[in-house]
């Protein structure tokens, strides 16, 4: 399958996993949009929330619930924001569902209508 994140998981594209368990792995975003920018990626390939099975949902939630225990090590002690881009309007560019973890600085929350 021609998927960047599946290739990273298999080690076919190099990227340091800063966290990994049976459900998810976490890497640094190659093009960070904040001082700290990670991606939490489910190990099972699916594109969209719409395609998630109940097992996928449980696996992702287990992953999200690990983040507080990783926050200190990842430089996210001050807080963080989770973002899941879905589809064209959101600018999703990699079609393997992933959660952006942004932090390491105060994050403004722009009014995107402007
Ligand atoms: P999306 O736009 O789909 O929500 O997010 C995809 C993210 O994956 C982008 O922030 C992009 O910088 C990141 N990305 C794309 N290719 C790679 C890669 O090869 N390695 C890493 N670490 N991040 C990547
Ligand atoms: Zn994939």
From TrEMBL:
The active site is at 98 (tele-amp-histidine intermediate). It comes from the Bacteria. Gene3D superfamilies: HIT-like. GO terms for molecular function: catalytic activity. A motif (Histidine triad motif) lies at residues 96-100. Residues 4-114 form the HIT domain. This is Histidine triad nucleotide-binding protein. It comes from Candidatus Protoclostridium stercorigallinarum.
